[in-house]
Amino acid sequence: GLVSADSFAGLRALLIPSSKRRPRGGGRRKHRTSPFGVESAGRWVVLRRDDRTTERRKPDVPALEPTNLRSDDYAWVLLRRYGVVFRRLLMRESSAPPWRELLRVFRRLEARGEIRGGRFVAGTSGEQFALPEAVGRLRAIRRSEPTGDLYGISAADPLNLTGIVIPGDRVPALASNRVVFRDGVPVAAREGGQFRALTEMGVLTRHDIERALVRKRVSPALRAYLGNVG
Asked: How far apart are the first and last CA of the chain?
């Protein structure tokens, strides 16, 4: 319960014996290895802090209740993940505490001046909270001119808010699915290997969009570097 991953691939990779894991340096083993590893298993996030060391150093400080501790930590996880947080985002967070618990944390952080409350995302009801740097970033993006560049991301990425914040049909948050954005608007998706247009493509060609939908291969050197950093 201390960490969480965005897919089961990480758990499967951890359960594989070390003799069957792929070498980090990109080499080859003589025997058969598993087709996946920890370096390509997605992202991990800390859900709770282990305060046992703190309690030993400061015995006079009362320990927080587990529920409150989890809500505090998860509130910061959401803030760092999205920049702006509101109730509708919990549709993507199946393991999140109830919104009423998170709301108390966000209000307390706002009263301390650590975060800001207000209306940052149009078309969304209820209270919203944001990191100060996220507010400045939103204003800069609003003033910038559209570029028309295409960006493909995994549907499991937190940026995939189609059908939640962005109008349209939801794209299931599976690592095998992909979504292509142009100037913040989803234009197409790949679900179960099938291409699906999400809006009018205009001057864009299907070839350009399909190229953006392809998941870029990671070189062995980059996998080794990410493994060493992790």
From this structure: 19
154: its two tokens: 């995994």
Predicted TM-score (pTM) of the model is: 0.61
**Residue 156 and residue 42 in contact, taking contact as beta carbons nearer than 8 Å:** yes
Cα separation, 89 vs 171, in Å, equals 15
Residues β-bridged to residue 189: 179, 196
d(CA 104, CA 111): 11
Question: What is the rounded CA–CA span in Å between residue 118 and residue 134?
Answer: 12
Q: Which residues of the chain have pLDDT under 50?
A: 51-67, 230
CB 100 within 8 A of CB 116: no
Residue 62 has which token pair? 């009362």
Give residue for tokens 């400080």: 61
pLDDT for 121-163, tens place per residue? 888 889 999 999 999 998 898 888 888 888 888 888 888 888 8
Which tokens in the block code for residue 178?
């992909």
